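Consider a protein example.
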Amino acid sequence: MDPPVHPPGSSWAPPAARAAVAGHGSARGGLVLLLLFSACTREIPILLYHEVGCGTRDARDVPAAEFDQELGWLAGAGYTFVPPEVVEHPERAPDKAIALTFDDGAACLYTRAFPALLRRRVPFALFLPTGWIGADAAHRTRQKLEDGEEVDTLVWPEVAAMVKSGLARVGAHGREHVYLRKLGAAALANEVGGSRDDVLARTGGVADLFAYPFGAFDGRVAGAARAAGYRAAFAVGAGLGGTFAYRRRSVHRGADEAALMKLVGPAWILPWLNHD
């Protein structure tokens, strides 16, 4: 059963925390656990999409009609769509806040996902591997999906059109979408800092959000993101959360309403993980 939403500053602990305290042999240890879990706040779910309506068989390619239906289900369940940067301060967010992110920059995000987002006025973040994004349609690249199929990639004018709507926030996703943990210092700085430079140069806006390619990172990679000037970084369902390791929940095709509601179900974080 969904636990009650607790207001900021209240002393509420999830049932699992209370059970842990009850079964703990040490009164002192139980008190520590109680204080720890009383400090928990509800995590804002961040959804991760890759392709929407690209027409492939890839499991991450969510059909456009299905995507629009998912937005409707979330709205009907009382969720409020918020920009991804709101997750830095979950205690200030509206009840049942949720954020949407899109990785890798498939062109179908502009032609199939963006119309639904625009119609519903849903804010979102695009995390782009900047080396894949062409200057214009004549320089459009193609990217290979997990199942081996290829699709077109966005070009910068399409990115600019989404930004102009006031809904899209552009973050960096490296330059060539490589495993950052395998790189030496110079190559790591080029991928992490260079992609930030590219976003700044192409959009003229803020470029302070980063998403780790493949969701893969370690302390050295997170440190490189911090050093490059990002204020937050996003992973994929790993770690304890926090400013440079926000967890995201991947959406695949074929999810029914019950599965989607389970995916966005409650989780808890410690607020101080979200601050430097």
Remarks:
- The mean pLDDT is 87.
- Residues 185-203 form the longest helix (19 residues).
